[in-house]
Amino acid sequence: MAEELVIQGSALGKQFGENVIAVEDANFTIPRGSFISLVGPSGCGKSTLLRLISGLIEKSGGDLLVRNAEVVGPRSDIGMMFQKAVLLDWRTSIENVLLPDEIRGTIDTDAKKRAWDHLQLVGLKDFEFSFPRQLSGGMQQRVALARLLQTGADIMLLDEPFGALDEFTRERLNDELLRIVEGPDITTIFVTHNIQEAIYLADQVFVMTPRPGRIAAQIEIDLPTPRNIDMTTTPEFNNYVQQVRDVLAGHLDGQPL
Amino acid sequence: MSDIGSDGVLAGVKELSPIQKLAMHGLVFLIIFGGWEVGARLGYVNELILPAPTSIAYRLYEMFFVTGSIYWHYIITMYEATMGFIIGVSIGMGLAITAAISPVFRRYWAPYAVVFNVTPGIAVTPFIIAWFGFGWSSKIALAALVCFFPPFINTLTGLLHIDKDATELFRSLGSTKKQFFWKCQIPSALPIIIAGLKLAMTGALIGTIVAQFFSASEGVGILMQRFAFRLNMDGSFAALIVMSLMGLSLFTLMEYMDYKVLYWRRHSRMEEVGSKRKRKWFAENGDFSA
Q1: CB A32 within 8 A of CB A3
Q2: Where are the alpha helices (DSSP H) in A29-124?
């Protein structure tokens, strides 16, 4: 099976100022259509790695290729989602979803139709003309997800997107996310500090450890797809959890917290 | 008392029916103004210090409906205050936007605006009169001077305190600085900018009236002073009430603008605007679900 590599990092590093090494010597390849979780404690550089790939920040060393081209800045095939929904309060859901088209100057009936459909897809039928403050936290993240889909990006970088939501909402949104990104086209990188969530969602988990931020292990998750919540109680699943814990424990021993 | 603390300072106030409430307000009003009136009539209060409410009311009636002498002064004062407001706000916001866009300007020029602000604007009145003369322009200049700072500092604060995630979102979407400015920075800053405008409005009125006190041939400020110099206290008080009316009308105007512009801060407005946009959308695009 000739898998197409979309993202490739070798000896990738990012240093802030004189002595803060946020990411050091990161080597990885991410095949097209895969779902990668970046898991690790705060300060392990997972958000930095995500921002390097997004082109929002510049690397300090090594190589980073997206579709065989060096990353030099934000690109239209990469879309992002954050822990906060970052919606514009003065815009209705549909107007928020149309923001990417507005910025690119591609707003037309077709774009409007797609925005409408994306809102239906994320389950926001009848909330197209609600303002963010009229929506719950979970619904706001759904709008943000619809906006991400609207960009047409097939590489999705998600920075703890449901981290601020309650457990129940998060589980539901995780399942809906999986449903939306499944298939060979969309490549997803998902940052989280929740080990179970990381394993549940991903084809591959990158375990990151802090000071300096490194990818300590890359674990293939060989669980059947589509995933469902009952799998989280199986021995296989718990094995993976234990593996991740072991990696983190090995690196965190003796480190100040 | 089971409801202690349930509604803060009003805990313990018995809930009245609307009619009872109205009667209560009427009663309090009557006690204050009736007491004042009786005191004045019976000579307990010197008319030269505090004239009776009815004399003030009569004077107001006379100004507005018999001689009509107040209108010109009223219009002039409102004109001066409004012009001063517009000029002051334009300069303040213009400087703030420049400072927000240019870090060099912010660093090396904006501190002078702060020095300017800590100097009491009213104290500059003699200079303003000397520079701009005794006519309208000196009133407008002082009004502008007194009201320029709140819009300046609020606009600058609003434009600079933008959510880091919003910046990243716009960058990841390939936004230009100009798009970011208009689509994100300005609307995000609007609530604090409008708060600055409210302060400026009051400032402009104060500036105008102080300048009129100093030297003017027309305006409510000089009218009041003329009454006072002639020991016509009911006239003076009437002029004061006119000033309150001006302040109130300008304030109401600002509140209305707040209500209209900042619709996303009020639930009832969001519903109103949301359904308006919905109708517009369906009129333009039809129903995609159909």
Answers
A1: yes
A2: 46-54, 93-97, 99-104, 109-121
Q: Is any Cβ of chain B less than 8 angstroms from the Cβ of A134? A: yes
Collapse the DSSP code of B2 into the 3-class scheme (helix H, G, I; strand E, B; otherwise coil) and give the result.
coil
Alpha-carbon span A11 to A204, nearest angstrom: 19
Cis check for the bond before A256: say yes or no (omega within 30 of 0): no
Question: Per the CB < 8 Å rule, is A82 touching B285?
Answer: no
Q: Is A2 helix (H, G, I), strand (E, B) or coil?
A: coil
Measuring CA to CA, which residue among B288, B226, B237, B189 is closest to residue B52? Answer: B237
**Cβ contact A133–B270 (<8 Å):** yes
Q: pLDDT, tens digit, for every residue of B102-114?
A: 889 888 887 887 8
Kind plus residue range of the DSSP H or E element containing B127: helix B125-132
Peptide bond into A212 cis (omega under 30): yes
d(CA B287, CA A109): 12
| Separation of alpha carbons B152 and B196, rounded Å | 8
Give residue B2's pLDDT.
Answer: 42
pTM, to two decimals: 0.84
| Closest to A241 measured CA to CA, from A202, A187, A189 | A202
Summarize pLDDT for B1-14 with one digit per residue, the tens. Answer: 344 444 556 556 67
Query: What pLDDT, in 10s, does the model give residues A44-86?
Result: 888 899 999 999 999 888 899 998 889 998 999 999 999 899 9
Per this entry, what is the length of chain A?
257
CA–CA separation, A141 and A32 (whole Å)? 25
- Residue position matching structure tokens 């549940």: A200
Q: Which helix (H) or strand (E) holds A80?
A: strand A78-81
Q: Is A230 on the interface with B (CB under 8 A)?
A: no
Q: Compare CB distances from A88 to B184, B265, B274 and report the shortest one's residue.
A: B184
